[in-house]
Amino acid sequence: QVSQIKEKVEEKEGIPPVQQRLIYGGKQMVDDKSASEYGLEAGATLHLVLALRGGY
């Protein structure tokens, strides 16, 4: 599950999953889909974008 990948990122980097946007192959990955649904293979590169709350 993509949500499990986000949990691993939180363990290593301290970034809460709610702030993470994982991109693979130009598409944002959805939490409840499996990595295999995106064709993700070992050694693949994911892009992490932080979704930060705006405001003044």
From TrEMBL:
SMART domains: UBQ. Gene3D superfamilies: Phosphatidylinositol 3-kinase Catalytic Subunit, Chain A, domain 1. It holds the Pfam family ubiquitin. InterPro entries: Ubiquitin-like_dom, Ubiquitin-like_domsf, Ubiquitin_CS, Ubiquitin_dom, Ubiquitin_ubiquitin-like. Residues 1-55 form the Ubiquitin-like domain. This is NEDD8-like protein.
